Amino acid sequence: MKKGELIAEFAKRTEMSGAAANTAVNTIIEIITERLKKGDTVGITGFGTFSVTKRAARKGRNPATGEVIKIAASKTPRFAAGATLKASVNPKKK
Q1: Does residue 94 have a pLDDT over 70?
Q2: Measuring CA to CA, which of 5, 38, 54, 88 is 20 to 30 A from 15?
Q3: What is the pTM of this model?
């Protein structure tokens, strides 16, 4: 599912206009992004948790030349699925 499809489905389920649904989805994405930039964690009970992890500086290799290169330290966003989401994706078999 792409963002446009998500917005269309959101509009249909909430009986909102496409423009209002677009604004709502974009606002949620903006809020999560802003909080992650500040270093906060965003938890949505039952769905999952968005967080930022630090990656240490390390050495890598240029695959074309084999030359050793330095890879700078960075931060990367992370998502950990919540128990309810995991359970719905992996239903128990009887």
Answers
A1: no
A2: 88
A3: 0.79
